[in-house]
Amino acid sequence: MSDDDQDRITRRQQKYEPSIADEESDLARRIDIISEQIEFVFSVIDKPLPLRDGRQIISSLNELLEMARAHFQHEETIMTKNKFPGIINHKRDHDYLLECLRNYTSSLVDETVPLTTPLGGGLRSWLTYHKKKYDDAYQEFMEHGGRNAGV
C-alpha cells in the first residue's frame, strides 16, 4: 500500500470518529465517509488484473468491514432509540453484508478465491438495493415524525 493510500485511510478514520452533533447529521456524515471508502475499494478492485495488489485489496476490504460494522451499529442504535418498526429486517440486511464481506475477505486471505472474482458489481447492487428498500424506509419514517408518529 502506498503512503498516499495509508494517509487517506488515516484521515478517513479520524473523520469517522463520533461527533457531538445531532444524531441525524452525524449519521449523514458517517454515510459520506463510508461512501468515500467504498469508492476507494472500487478503485482498488476495478484496476486491471496485472495492476491489482492482493494485500491492498484485503487491507481495503478489512477497513471497509470495520467501518461498515461501526456504522451499522451506530445506525441501528439510532433506529432502536427512534422505535423504527423496520429495524429487524434492516439489521438482518446489515448482517448479511458484513457476513459476505468477511467471507470474501477470508477467501482472498486463504487464496481460495482468485482476485478475478467480481466483487464490485455485487457490492454496488447490494448498496443500491439496501438504500432503496431499507434506508429510504427509515428516512420516510423519520420524515413522518419518527418515534412520535401516530402519537
Task: Annotate the secondary structure layout.
Elements: H1 3-16, H2 23-45, H3 54-81, H4 87-109, H5 120-143
Helix pairs in contact: 1-2, 2-3, 3-4, 4-5
Using brief descriptors, characterize the structure shown.
Four Helix Bundle (Hemerythrin (Met), subunit A), mainly alpha, 5 helices, 151 residues, 0% strand, 74% helix
Q: In a few lines, what is going on in this structure?
A:
The protein is an all-alpha fold. The chain is built from 5 helices and no strands.
Write up this protein.
The protein is an all-alpha fold. The protein has one domain: Four Helix Bundle (Hemerythrin (Met), subunit A), CATH 1.20.120.50. Helix content is 74%, strand content 0%. The chain is built from five helices and no strands. It has helices at residues 3-16, 23-45, 54-81, 87-109, 120-143. Helix 1 packs antiparallel against helix 2 (23-45), helix 2 (23-45) packs antiparallel against helix 3 (54-81) and helix 4 (87-109) packs antiparallel against helix 5.
| Strand residue percentage | under 5%
CATH homology-level superfamily: Hemerythrin-like
User: What is the gyration radius calculated from CA atoms?
Assistant: 17 Å
Instruction: Characterize the quaternary organization of these chains.
Output: single chain
Contiguous uncertain segments of 5+ residues: none
* Largest sheet, strands/sense/barrel: none
Kindly provide the name of the CATH class: Mainly Alpha
Distance between the termini: 53 Å
Order of secondary-structure elements: HHHHH
Note the overall shape.
Answer: elongated
Stated plainly, the CATH topology is called Four Helix Bundle (Hemerythrin (Met), subunit A)
Which architecture does the CATH hierarchy give at level 2?
Up-down Bundle
* Total individual domains: 1
Q: Which structural category fits the helices and strands?
A: mainly alpha
* Helicity, as a percent range: over 70%
Number of strands: 0
- What's the pLDDT, averaged over the residues? 77
- The number of helical segments is 5
